[in-house]
Design a protein that fits this description.
Shape of chain A: elongated
Strand order of the largest sheet of chain A: 3-5-6-11-12-14-15-16
Largest interface: A-B, 51 and 49 residues
CATH architecture of the largest domain in chain A: Beta Barrel
Order of helices and strands of chain A: HHHHEEHHEHEEEEEEEEEEEEE
Structural class of chain B: mainly alpha
Helix content of chain A: 10-25%
Number of domains of chain B: 2
CATH superfamily of the largest domain in chain B: RNA polymerase sigma factor, region 2, helix turn helix motif
Number of domains of chain A: 2
Oligomer: heterodimer
CATH class of the largest domain in chain B: Mainly Alpha
CATH architecture of the largest domain in chain B: Orthogonal Bundle
Distance between the termini of chain B: 50 Å
Radius of gyration of chain A: 32 Å
Shape of chain B: globular
Distance between the termini of chain A: 87 Å
Strand content of chain B: under 5%
Strand content of chain A: 35-45%
Number of helices of chain B: 9
CATH topology of the largest domain in chain A: Porin
Chain lengths: 455, 182
Amino acid sequence: MDQQYIDKKFREKLEGLEVNPPVEAWLAISEAISKPARRGVVPVVFRMAAAVAVLIVSLFSLNFLLLNRSGQDTEIADWSVQDTPLFDLQPDRVAASGEQREEAQPSTLAGSPGTDVQAGQFSPARASFTDPGRMTPRQGVYLDRASLTFFPFPERSRATSEGSVSDPGINALTGGSDLMTLAAGTDDGSVGNNISLGAHFAPQYNFRLLRGTDGMSFSDIPFQSLEEQILSYSVGLNAYFELSPRWTLQAGISYMNMGQYVKDIMSYQHPSRLPLFAGHEGSVNHPQTIITSQGNIRLSDPHLYFADQQSYRVLTNRHAMEGTDVQSLSESQEGITQVFRFVEIPVVFRYALYEGGDVGLRLKGGVSASYLLNNNVFLGHDMMQNPIGKTDGLRKFNFSAIGGFAMDIPLTGNLTFHLEPTGQLFISPIVREGVMTGYAYPYGFSLQTGISYGF
Amino acid sequence: MDVLKKILKGCLQSRKVDQYRLYAMYSRKMYGICLRYAASTDEAQDILQEGFIKVYKHLPSYSGKGSLEGWIKRIFVNTAIEKYRERVYHLSVEEVVDDGEFVHENKGVEALNVRDILTVVQQLPVQYRMVFNLYALEGYSHKEIAEALDISESTARSNLARARRILKYKLNKEFEVILQAI
């Protein structure tokens, strides 16, 4: 009698026991049942990102090397300009012997056809020393003692030079363009001594790219029409290190929201707002899961029951629904919003395309490492209310590629306003392999607005 | 039912989305079973993973007749039995005192929550736990248990009796702790 009682009681307590398994369980199962052939396939996005990264690093390294050479030459040129008449300069000779100076003859100057070269009106772009033995016609020393003023921005305001020498290598690389010629010279012959600190705020438009595995995973759920972009924001602190007059390295730390809106998910609740599901010890064991392109949502609000209007994305554990009269529930709201919050450390190179008196235009590109702080799911579009669940299987660490333009507008002596249309694309799927039905790569377009202070 | 057929069809075609759907439908319940047979959550997770891999592998053999949940559940119970067989356990049954004076009409079962009861079951020596689960919760006969665990019927009976005594002892101990806390 007592034995049967024990058996009966344990059966009552444990027979219908349901416990959420850890996320890692599905990861392991999914990996085990996946086809081996899929391993080792490098996504196109990875390859593209790697190519861009190599290109950026190569260009930067090359340019950095050339500008270092430029700095050495400039020191020699400045020394020689101090006490020598205009045009009394020949870099190679000066470098070889500081005492020996060979006065440049007017005949050694070559200008564009019809150019009348005179002191104070010397055009760096069009005139150069010609020494066939050592320089091409487009290479040489450019000198305008009277009027050369470089980079009118605050951080560049000191870059006014009475004389400077451009690097022949750079001119060879760029065909001797005006911009590169100007870029090669600095006031004190050194580079990389400017630091600015700033902050930014960016309204951000978020969505994701989809890539199915083996071309089959997204085929039966039209995520493209069932999910929408959302508007969020990012804020951050930045430090700018001027590596050269052209190149600036930007690093910092940002807080960023990303996510998406999932359409056509109807939610229902009890008319008296009574809980529909109960868990063990007061915890919630919600019997439903929602599949999205950016992970599977594990629901936690016991007051809500969900149903899919378009596709079979809401999975319900039928056993747990026994005794719940869905027909008696009242419709609540349509759609849910997934939000992922990251802290990220971007490393971005900025290249000056144009430097004018009122505005400067830069091209920027780089990478960002981000760490997932938390994620939440909300009813409707309202991200201020209580979350109703979380997305499972998200990667904690992510990497993304950053690109865009930056407009720098000087405000006062050291203060600069930045306006930067920026694009950002995750180069790794946001969901760990195996959890999702394919790969989703979040991206965002933002308009970063901020200020920086130059030291 | 159409939805379930669609999921099964997708699983047979190795479609990951349908494999996940099937997992989402049954993983909670199966994990509950795994926890009953395992001594720890890690062991339960091992059984869960192995069980689902078998489900996907043997799905072509599911005829469609009978409950899918029942078919899956049998796979998990068999997986737990196989796991038990694979391991060489040295039974270290703790000495159990005569439980007569501790039994208060098994009030402990009523008072304790599911997690505590599960913990008590998990703390049983592995062979006792297997026998108790198969007999009390799966409805196996002593003969079936003996065949499954490769033991004699009398051993199965004595294991079940010992398991019950240990459970009663532990539950009353837990209940006393609760009473003292109050």
